[in-house]
Amino acid sequence: MKILVPVKRVIDYNVKPRVKADQSGVDLANVKMSMNPFDEIAVEEAVRLKEAGTAAEIVVVSIGEQKAQETLRTGLAMGADRGILVVSENMPEPLAVAKILAKIAEEESPDLVILGKQAIDDDSNQVGQMLAALLGWAQGTFASKVEVAGDKVNVTREVDGGLETLALSTPAIITTDLRLNEPRYASLPNIMKAKKKPIDEKTPADYGVDTAPRLEVVKVTEPPKRQAGEIVPDVDTLVAKLKELGAVA
Ligand code: AMP
């Protein structure tokens, strides 16, 4: 089995984002960037399938600026075999990303494409679904468990009120939810080994995809500041305050 894992370079989840003064977006100058956390989960799942002898090859793909190469190296250090970097100085929108990934999937013919359920920078939650539609492949989104059983892949999804299990025919698209697994940290020897693994460099034009934006960001603003709290001296005062606010009867 061959697995393709698209990984996005995003602002690190520990960083508090700052909005640019002109409200055109989030300020990314000198900000720590990392692999999208859901994509780490996707790489981990692929590596576990390889360790179990189910998968033979894992290819990581990133679309973005040249520095996305570091994100690919992280995936390679976790256990992927090779990378494809599609260099685009402006971050393409989800539809363009899905179109590029569809071309790569046609070229590489993976059995599974495992993506994150969403990228934490713009929270689109679109690429996996669009990719499945463009390719006409089965999809299991928000996976909390993945099991390969014969020629099917069983994907358990957390839905309102319980768990739903889908049996997908391959090739298929899976998107990862938070509880699927806990990604490993790459060991130092594996980080060193990853430097020698091959990364192919491409451009969106190589896949005939136009990445011109179709959406216009009107403005980006900070969330409203939280109001200051109040410290009360004892429980009686707390209860009285809550009654005053109508929070308790
Ligand atoms: P989104 O629909 O943008 O929230 O992203 C969902 C998933 O698509 C991510 O978790 C990644 O697996 C993949 N993805 C999105 N953008 C990119 C990108 N620029 N490069 C590689 N993978 C991406």
Molecular structure report:
- Residues 23-211 form the Electron transfer flavoprotein alpha/beta-subunit N-terminal domain.
- The protein has six helices and eleven strands.
- It is of the alpha/beta class and 249 residues long.
- The chain is globular.
- It has helices spanning 37-51, 68-78, 94-108, 127-135, 188-194, 235-245; strands spanning 2-6, 9-11, 33-35, 57-64, 82-87, 112-116, 138-149, 152-159, 162-169, 172-176, 199-202.
- The termini are far apart.
- The relative contact order is 0.18.
- The strands form two sheets. The chain has a nine-stranded mixed beta sheet, with helices on both faces.
- Bound molecules: adenosine monophosphate (AMP).
Shape: globular
The CATH homologous superfamily corresponds to HUPs
Low-confidence stretches: none
How do the SSEs run, as a string of H and E? EEEHEHEHEHEEEEHEH
What Rg, in angstroms, do the CA atoms define? 21 Å
User: How large a portion of the residues is in β-strands, by DSSP E?
Assistant: 25-35%
Gap between N and C termini: 61 Å
Mean pLDDT, nearest integer? 96
Structural class of the helix and strand makeup?
alpha/beta
CATH architecture: 3-Layer(aba) Sandwich
- Using the coordinates above, name the CATH class: Alpha Beta
Number of domains: 1
CATH topology name, in short, is Rossmann fold
Largest sheet at a glance? 9 strands, mixed
Main-sheet strand order equals 9-8-7-10-6-1-4-5-11
